[in-house]
Amino acid sequence: MLKLKSGRDLSSGLTAQALGLEDIARFGINGGLSVLAFDPVQSLLAAGTDTGRVYVFGQPGVEVEFDLCPGKPILHMRIIKSIYLVTVDGNNAVTVLSLDTKDVLSVFTPNSPVTAMESDPALDWLFLGLENGLTVVYDVDRGTKAPYRIGNLQKTELPRAPMSSVLFLALHPRSFQVILIGYENCAVVYSMVDENTLLVLQYEVPPGAPGGDLHPSQHTRSRFPRLTTGAWHPNGHHIVTAYEDGSFVFWDAREGVLLQARTVEDTEVNIPRKSYISTSDIADSPREPIYRIAWCCTTNPEDTSLLIAGGQPGSLPLKGITYMEFGPTPLVQITSYQAQGDHYSQPRRQRIYPVPAGADPVDFIMIPRTSPYYAGNHDPVALVVVLSSGELYSIEYPTGAALEVASMFPPSLCWIQPRMSAFSVASVRREQWIGMMASKKKQPDTMLTGGAPARSRLRKFDTRNIVLTGHSDGWVRLWDASHGELEDSQILDLSIADALERSVDVRVSAISFAGQMGEMSIACETGELVYFKFGLNRPVSPEERQRRLEAKDIVEQNGRPPVIRHISGLIDPQMKEGFLPVFVLSPQRGPITAVKNSDIGFLAVGYQFGTLAVVELRSMSLIYLEDVNGLGIELSNRKFPLRPGDRSSTQSQGVQLEIPLSIEFSIMALEGDGFSSIVLSVGTNLGRLLSFRIIPVRGGTHSVQFVGAVQLKGKVIATIPFDADYGVSAAASPTILQKLPQGIVISGALIAVTPDEARVIRPPKLKMTSKSFDDKILVAGLSLLRQGDTLVLVCLTESGFIRIYAVPSLKEITSLSAQKFHDVRYAPRSIVSLNGDVLVGIGKNESALLNVWGKAMAVKTTGKDGEKISDSLYDVMKKLPPRPAISTIQWMSGTKYITADDFDLLSMYALIIRFAAILIRHCVVGGPHRPKSKRMMEEERARREQQRLAATQMIHTSSQSSSSRSSTYFGRKSNNDFAGMADGANERGERLGFMQNQFSKLEDASSEYVKSLSDFVEDQKRTAATSYFKAKFLG
Length: 1035
Known about the structure:
The chain is α+β, with helices and mostly antiparallel strands. It starts with a strand and ends with a helix. This is Lethal giant larvae like, C-terminal-domain-containing protein.
């Protein structure tokens, strides 16, 4: 129902055709993270989510999204040969994506669920471990399943053991024809060249040995702990396997000798002991299984360390990744097994990389500098941890310090490091924002440098919409919502943890940023508010600095800190310019429910206990601190009979406190006034709109005066001031404030919006227009194209529509469907900006940037068919480095050297013939009928085209001479024709005989060459071995 009293139509220049929804960009990620993959060659990071999305991130501005399996998680992911992105989703579909074309190349569904996946950066082959215990091979380049497969080796080697799925796969770091396959009861080292089992590693804990069990009652029997994961030493001489009881075992990779069995705090746990007494009170708590283990190395593959996720006692409050640095590995040729085991029992350094409280590490990946080999663990600079909550946590390696997320990662990933807890948008002039970015101190190079952003078109707005995200660790990050348009897309960040001088209980609950003044107020979930001001950090004298340090520790007579505690003494002296902490507001009135930092030097805060606080920022003084419960209602008519500050009887009396929910500052003339004032409007949870006037008083300060209230239906979710004469926003600004002494009169009004209705009010009580809604309103805000006749009210409804209403009549102009973006759980987080941008919350970690005018320039340009041009990911000029090969000692001991091309053939006969230069296609992994790759087919097409062009040229050249020969040719006699045919037949016979003789000679030469080659190799091995041992033992 619509009621209208008066008011000039400020939307007269609009029709429904002028409005349309423009989908501009996405921020954040959809769902929680489930798996990560990193390619150091292309410098790209791929992130899979529990909702079936895959995001690939590169340098600033590069982000490509793939929606592979809606509603199902991405379980496994690899980047192969720096161009193929392979995923396994919850539907058991193996999907191969091209990072070059960004297309799906092939999809393969095995007949059994995939439980493990392994690949090598230099190979086309993807090894898939299945639930039935088989290991199958998929040809990623050809998009077909290879005929080669490995049976259930545990069933073969341990016939009495229960059936087991494949738990993990690990290719040998130097000789990829050898693979480590993990089952529940054993790990098997298998040679794909010889097609036989080299080692079976089964870990038994005898009676009396502690193993990984913490409770002594488990030590009296023999146990075979369940295997969970494993890894190769970078040199391939040792293997580590990890188990469900939290222990991990080091093995010799050639003989299968157990070198050391240990846990994160104990060694030789496989050796029986007379008595085992736990050194702590954690004996009743089982140890965590080891989820993930990574064997890392520096630029020297012999200098190693181990990173372990899990394996800690379950009752320990500190969760994290265990780091063990072992240093250079002893030479296995001259070191006894006992000494090798001692090496792993005495790490040089050991520590825990802690992760945020409330979540456990379930997986992690290393970020190597340049090389993708050694399972991605070669010379890493950082590790990125996936937490059980779906969040990320980044750690510098090897120091263990938390990475500076804002400078190292794209904005979308910053939303979940850790998960966003507060969200806000503010308008900042473009020049001012660039100046703020220029003040940011030089940061280390971003972690991701790959790809190239698509060409963007600038949106012609003088003000930028700055998105602010608050996080549970106390960090607040600022970045441009249209960051793809700017040359500099860095993120500004600041933390309240230092200002509050603690690292716990710093979760950000609300943010308000006054863009024109560079002032920010950050609310903490404990009810404290920290105020920052952007500016220069001017040097002060030692005496002044000491005075500031003492001021932050001042307490009142009752022993409590003051309501406003000055903290400028905590400013980092090294900071030249930035957000400087000024004070902490803490009136002890419960959690903060609303905060508004105005552009005219006032701050208003609402609290859970019904209190409203107003601070004058110029003098940093508290000018108002009162309860709004029943304010303006006569005592006899109050429905809320509580005295100010009395909250003890709320439960017994069933009384609902009146809580401020929406706060706005404006400058306008109140009803009946002939002058303009600073007006503070407060909407409450009980549907009342409270109006206050802020007036100057003697001494240069101000006071707050209550002037009236209006009752509405439902809680007030938005209070929106506008100028009824000029059709622009009437929100308080420095420009209008400077004109107040001139006596200007602003004919202002206020739109108060609840879920059920909207009212246009001339404060404090004059009702101009009202409208009831059948579809509940979640978010509302003003928007305009130009001053005077394009002002509209934009409302996001519960059903997923964006409804546009004229101002002040509140007549509906049009309704735009946003249902494909809509999720009622997250839509209340949405924000409407004055330029028509609507930042819609579409997931717990994702928002969509829309524009209601339909003319906004998209962040990415569109192609011929109107589709957005996505960013480029693959750089053809970046080549894979050579793969590490086996060492000389390994070759001397009989290990076969296999190249990537040899692995495709994978037979000793093919290797011998290759040395003899005889091309024989005899494939084992790929099979004899392996189809040609796309590259081969393209080369063949190009070769055929070149041959066709050459033939055409030859025909054209000989056409003239053929005409001159034609008369002679037709003048020949027929018997000469038959004679020519006979001569041709004889000539072909002679040629065939010659070819047969040549093949016979080649066969004999090949046999002789192979025999001489074998003799030469054996002779060189004997000579090299003799020289090596003479040098070592005889000097």
